[in-house]
UniProtKB/TrEMBL annotation:
Coiled coil regions, renumbered to chain: none
GO biological process: RNA modification
Organism: Gossypium darwinii
Pfam families associated with the record: DYW_deaminase, E_motif, PPR, PPR_1, PPR_2
Molecular function per GO: RNA binding; zinc ion binding
Protein name, entry field: DYW domain-containing protein
Domain of life where this protein originates: Eukaryota
Similarity field: Belongs to the PPR family. PCMP-H subfamily.
PPR repeats: 118-152, 251-285
Amino acid sequence: MNYVYKLHVRLIKTGLQNDPVSLRRFLLSFAAAAPGSLPHARSVFARVPFLDTFAYNTLIRAHAHSSPSHSVSLFSAMRRDGVSPDNFTFPFVLKACARLHIGHDAHALIIKLGLGSDIYVQNGLISLYGSLGSVAGALDVFDEMPERDLVSWSSMISCFANNNFGYEALGLFQDMQLVGNLKPDEVTMLSVISAVSSLGALELGKWVDAYISRTGLKRTMSLGTALIDMYSRCGSVDDSIKIFNAIPVKNVLTWTVLINGLAVHGRSEEALKVFHEMKNTGLKPDHITFNGVLVACSHGGLVDDGWRVFESIKTDYGMEPTVEHYGCIVDLLGRAGLLNKAFEFVDTMPIKPNAVIWRTLLGACVKHNDLKLSEKEKVKIHELDPNHDGDYVVLSNVYGQAGRWDEKANVRNSMREMKVGKKPGYSFLNEGDMVHEFVSGDDFHPKSNEIKRFLISIIDDLRLDGYTPFTCNALHDVEDEEKEQSLSFHSEKLAVAFALLRFKDRRTIRVIKNLRICYDCHCFMKHVSNKFDREIVVRDRNRFHHFSKGSCSCKDYW
């Protein structure tokens, strides 16, 4: 920064502040010193008597990462001043637009200016379309490219991965390897790892890990951190720990990712231990770190530890707790059954509680069968977010557990009147490069009849070992037999039944579910793990459950 200011002073003293060659060097110096130099650069830029494409390009490029809105404003000024953009302008304009999630009309302008065939512009368009969620648009650009470089492939893989097309991302990565002279770099592999993480496919994750080792790609801190997260999200936090221990230099994000992984796997005391080890290294935890630690305390019932961590945010680190941190404390108290304390905490929060916090408290009241508080919270949530299907379902379940079927029916009628649809439960499991999907109560799977027959036989066998379907949350005031039928075909049960039919070896059954696992399915999984001597891992909306020999890693505290 000081160098840039000194250079500016020298230009003025020598009378070269308007010399085109000197100004070019000066602008390049500003770009090299970004982002600290940018406000001064804009001030100087505004007083330059003549502006050409190079000057605009330099400033647009300097702002593209740290201040994308200024990049877009500079591009607009460039157009107003009649300065022609070129193929060096658009890659950085597109980068800025991608960060701001704007620029739907950029492609048409590029074609109009005759720059649509430039590979750098095309790469920028792929990234832009990806940020806008337009996978089809990105794929159109990619498919029409006569030549592609590593950035082209990496950008398209990233587009797939970031828009939940995990298998397509991995398929494209395999296609890329068939192209000569293209070796994946760190950016490519980060997108591949992200795709595997979203799929929760452990075997694919191990293949990617081995591929990185086999190709000699340097395990940077970013790659190592991504692998820790990948293994955690694929259900193997022990592998996350191995990667973590092998990373020589760790930043706050590396520690935070491991803490989060331990937290969602129910290994709360380990997460807390890692947090203290991180503090001993001299690193300062950030808001995301604290969120992970508080989640760990909540899942493990560590109420006192959670309080101490929450209070340390302000007292030890001078940071203001975020609404997410307050939500974690509400969850911590609610899970522990301290409902009145949780309600009082929400009522006295210095920031206005959002619908998520009230929803968290509502869920705790349902778990502990506090109907009176549940009804109060539903009123609060309705004021903030009246169309969330989960709130109606939760309140409906409270009435079901209390046997108040008329009130339960009223809740369902309200959903219909307000046109609030209930999100269907679905689960899937991976088999190689195949995904098997199961939808609750549906005949979605091609072997649906066979799976259901086998599932019914499993349930009949489990009854002999003490399993009793938990029917309180069934949808209607009907006979027990009908309630059990409604529970029998929940998606995770269908997935496990299919796995037992399909996989005759001793592999762990890994299921991913979009909703929180229900109490009955949780009991079912424990019994199945014992009866069939199989390990079952269920990743639901909130956490992982590891079932083995009749027990769950959550210790029934969830």
